[in-house]
């Protein structure tokens, strides 16, 4: 009986247990059905309907981690990342071993740009599953977004090891390498990605960007062209192809590309500005002026059109027209920082330095974050002889935009003026590192290398310029003069020969080629070039000067004097003519007459190093000239410490003065590369 009662009690407990458990089983089943319904809706991209179902499941069972997880995913799909993060956080609270919850929350943090929290979650997810390439991929993205490019590259590399056939990973690693200026490494990654996905125009476009950054303009153009064949609506590809074409001096092609880029994307950054620059540099002056001129006729109150027309006129060296355009632009839009900044540059170009300074200051007042405003201010201060203030402005420009290559180049120019040659070289190096395709930076560095006596470096930079561009008249003109002035006659001849070929009616280019030929001891052809220059421009005094000097080298003193006197009759302040006539006076042993002509040179051009050394040499022949001779050689070396000719001439002067230290000067001249110095060592010093 007792046993029966007991059995009945057990039966009653079991029955009560079953009764009590029935609602829980029912609730669980109901929550599960909402999960199934929510997932089905999510699969059909009805994310809001899915969220409603997952919410019902949570209401039934608040501790159901999967419901929070699924709802978080749905929130993520409608870009409600804050809600997604809350649900992933609840999922992790209920199920801390859910790797995907950590992973997906990290991705949501990425979406709201909270990259540090994203990285922490990726770290946790990777610690739980180190074989998931996507986790490394997305963590790399987060690291890249906080500037940890080295860390990002390491993660992309791990992801590539796990999934080596994913072109996206090579693409993104290439982009990150570009951010570190490792353009060669970037190109290597893009090459692999392109082999895997040859019809992906973006990959080819990115590779073009990297090639352009390396100064490989031809390679960049080839890639942009290939990318455009796959995607002809890529405005940026047209724009950057235009940049590469401009760097090569092919302004006609660049203009067409800039116009197409603007047509596809009217507000493309710097589109009109770069188009204006290309128009101004083109040989088609009429077409350049017509482009914005026609637009101004259609929209005469558009301040930007006057700004761009002003840029065109500046590049065409129409200073008056440019200033008028900038004035009009500012009148229409007195808050345009770009208009004030460009007018500042135009005023600096017109030597209106005080007004240029005021414009640059107004540009900065309107936009203190515009580094170019400080660059323009610095350039104006250089004109006002305030190089200390100018340097401070360039330092500010670089603090604002530490990757602005132009700022480093201009700071280098200021340091060159201050005779801080080694420091200037470092700034030119940095400008080239940031903008390796800009030929002008190599020309600037040539100037600094000449000052430091780095002749090998000069030749290397000259060769780099030739490899970058062969059709930039303005650059080649300055390059030729720089090389000739530094006595790099072979390189200077090549530059002027190219200019004569392209511009056969320009007398100055025959003059430059003649000087180069004369420096190479090809006097006959040099005189032929001077003859041609005079035929094209009978008032070109430099041609008479140099032809006279060439005749002098042939001992045709009468012919030389005739040409030089002709030059002086055309231009009384022709310092070079006085210099050559002084040299003739030395040959005639009229040393005081030579000194008088050198004095005339220095009266016209006070800092002419060459004149100081030659006047010193002439003074060495005068009975009372020793003290003045020493002062002139000292000044020549102060102005140009590593000039080989100064040491050579001082050695000869010391021989005239019976000074036993002449061999030290010949030795120094020889060390600096002087063949005359080497010959003098053998002749006078027995070496």
UniProtKB/TrEMBL annotation:
Q: Which domain of life is it from?
A: Bacteria
Q: Where are the TPR repeats?
A: 31-64, 65-98, 99-132, 133-166, 167-200, 201-234, 235-268, 303-336, 405-438, 507-540, 541-574
* Signal peptide per UniProt: 1-28
One family name in Pfam for this protein: TPR_8
Under the heading SUPFAM superfamilies, the entry gives: TPR-like
List the SMART domains.
TPR
Keyword Ion transport recorded:
no
Record's keyword terms, sorted: Repeat, Signal, TPR repeat
- PANTHER family recorded: TETRATRICOPEPTIDE REPEAT PROTEIN 6, UDP-N-ACETYLGLUCOSAMINE--PEPTIDE N-ACETYLGLUCOSAMINYLTRANSFERASE SPINDLY-RELATED
Q: What is this protein called?
A: Tetratricopeptide repeat protein
Lineage, highest ranks first: Bacteria, Pseudomonadati, Bacteroidota, Sphingobacteriia, Sphingobacteriales
């Amino acid at each position: 009986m007792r046993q029966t009662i007991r059995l009945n009690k057990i039966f009653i407990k079991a029955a009560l247990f079953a009764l009590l458990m029935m609602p829980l089983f029912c609730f669980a089943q109901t929550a599960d059905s909402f999960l199934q319904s929510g997932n089905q809706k999510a699969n059909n991209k009805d994310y809001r309907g899915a969220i409603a179902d997952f919410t019902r499941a949570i209401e039934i069972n608040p501790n159901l981690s999967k419901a929070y997880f699924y709802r978080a995913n749905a929130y993520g799909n409608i870009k409600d990342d804050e809600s997604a993060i809350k649900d992933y956080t609840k999922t992790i609270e209920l199920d801390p071993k859910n790797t995907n919850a950590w992973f997906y929350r990290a991705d949501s943090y990425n979406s709201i740009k909270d990259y540090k929290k994203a990285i922490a979650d990726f770290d946790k997810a990777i610690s739980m599953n180190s074989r998931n390439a996507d986790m490394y991929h997305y963590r790399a993205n987060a690291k890249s977004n906080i500037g940890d490019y080295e860390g990002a590259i390491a993660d992309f590399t791990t992801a590539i090891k796990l999934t080596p056939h994913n072109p996206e990973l090579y693409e993104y690693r290439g982009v990150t390498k570009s951010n570190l200026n490792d353009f060669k490494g970037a190109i290597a990654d893009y090459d692999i990605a392109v082999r895997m996905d040859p019809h992906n125009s973006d990959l080819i476009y990115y590779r073009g960007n990297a090639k352009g950054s390396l100064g490989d303009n031809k390679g960049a153009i080839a890639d942009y062209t290939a990318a455009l064949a796959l995607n002809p609506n890529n405005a940026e590809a047209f724009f950057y192809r235009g940049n590469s074409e401009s760097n090569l001096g092919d302004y006609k092609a660049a203009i067409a590309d800039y116009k197409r880029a603007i047509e596809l994307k009217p507000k493309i950054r710097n589109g009109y500005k770069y188009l204006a620059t290309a128009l101004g540099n083109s040989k088609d002056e009429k077409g350049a002026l017509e482009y914005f001129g026609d637009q101004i006729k259609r929209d005469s109150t558009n301040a930007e059109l006057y700004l761009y027309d002003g840029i065109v006129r500046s590049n065409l060296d129409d200073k008056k027209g440019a200033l008028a355009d900038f004035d009009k632009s500012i009148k229409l839009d007195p808050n345009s920082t770009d208009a004030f900044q460009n007018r500042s540059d135009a005023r600096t170009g017109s030597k209106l330095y005080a007004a240029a300074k005021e414009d640059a200051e107004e540009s900065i007042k309107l936009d203190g974050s515009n580094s170019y405003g400080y660059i323009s201010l610095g350039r104006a201060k250089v004109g006002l002889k305030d190089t200390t203030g100018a340097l401070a402005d360039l330092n500010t420009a670089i603090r604002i935009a530490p990757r602005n290559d132009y700022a480093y180049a201009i700071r280098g120019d200021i340091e060159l003026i201050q005779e801080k040659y080694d420091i200037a070289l470092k700034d030119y190096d940095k400008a080239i590192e940031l903008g390796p395709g800009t030929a002008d930076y190599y020309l600037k560095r040539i100037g600094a290398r000449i000052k430091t006596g780095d002749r090998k470096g000069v030749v290397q930079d000259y060769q780099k310029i030739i490899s970058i561009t062969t059709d930039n008249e303005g650059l080649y003109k300055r390059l030729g003069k720089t090389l000739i002035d530094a006595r790099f006659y072979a390189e200077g001849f090549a530059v002027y020969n190219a200019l004569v070929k392209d511009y056969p009616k320009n007398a100055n280019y025959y003059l430059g080629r003649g000087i180069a030929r004369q420096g190479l001891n090809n006097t006959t052809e040099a005189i032929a070039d001077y003859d041609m220059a005079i035929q094209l421009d009978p008032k070109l005094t430099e041609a008479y000067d140099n032809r006279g000097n060439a005749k002098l080298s042939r001992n045709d003193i009468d012919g030389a004097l005739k040409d030089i006197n002709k030059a002086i009759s055309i231009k009384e302040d022709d310092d070079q003519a006085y210099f050559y006539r002084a040299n003739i006076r030395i040959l005639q042993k009229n040393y005081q007459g030579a000194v008088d002509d050198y004095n005339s040179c220095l009266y016209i051009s006070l800092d002419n190093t060459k004149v100081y050394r030659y006047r010193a040499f002439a003074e060495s022949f005068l009975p009372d000239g020793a003290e003045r001779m020493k002062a002139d050689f000292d000044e020549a070396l102060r102005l140009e410490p590593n000039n080989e000719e100064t040491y050579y001439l001082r050695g000869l002067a010391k021989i005239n003065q019976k000074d036993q230290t002449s061999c030290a000067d010949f030795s120094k001249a020889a060390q600096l590369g002087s063949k005359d110095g080497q010959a003098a060592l053998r002749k006078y010093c027995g070496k």
